[in-house]
């Protein structure tokens, strides 16, 4: 009972009625009943550019991390090879 959320009641849906204008003389009607052409805002284009920049930055970060991991692995293998060579080699310098 303590951890169960209680949700607020949903508001009742509003009904919207539209009235249609019907003219019997559509060719002689001086008022404009032509719908406006859809306008294309700049917001979708900006959103696409921001998404592309974010994708490029993310790919750059991932590739940098992979190159760093390969470099660290190569250095650690080289150090291990030097240590093993010194341990398994003949003791000439003693």
Task: Kindly describe this structure.
With 94 residues, the protein is mainly α. The chain has a domain at 59-89. The protein is 49% helix and 0% strand. The protein has one helix and no strands. It has one helix at residues 43-88. The N and C termini lie far apart (78 Å). The model has no long low-confidence stretch (mean pLDDT 78).
Any chance you could write out the topology, listing elements then pairs?
Layout lengths: L42 H46 L6
Features:
mainly alpha; single chain; elongated; transmembrane helix; 1 helix; 94 residues
Task: Report the C-alpha radius of gyration, rounded.
Answer: 36 Å
The tally of helices reads 1
| Helix percentage | 40-55%
What's the SSE pattern? H
Q: Termini, distance in Å?
A: 78 Å
Q: What overall form do the CA principal axes indicate?
A: elongated
Task: Describe the largest sheet.
Answer: none
The total count of strands amounts to 0
The residue ranges in which pLDDT falls below 50 over 5 or more consecutive positions are none
Keywords: Membrane, Transmembrane, Transmembrane helix
Transmembrane segments: 42-63, 69-88
Organism: Streptomyces silvisoli
Protein name: SpdD protein
């Amino acid at each position: 009972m303590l951890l169960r959320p209680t949700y607020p009641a949903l508001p009742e849906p509003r009904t919207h009625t539209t009235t249609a204008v019907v003219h019997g003389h559509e060719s002689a009607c001086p008022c404009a009943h032509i719908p406006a052409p859809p306008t294309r805002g700049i917001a979708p284009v900006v959103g696409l550019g921001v998404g592309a920049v974010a994708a490029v930055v993310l790919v750059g970060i991932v590739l940098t991390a992979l190159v760093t991991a390969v470099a660290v692995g190569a250095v650690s293998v080289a150090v291990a090879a030097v240590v093993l060579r010194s341990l398994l080699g003949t003791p000439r310098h003693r």
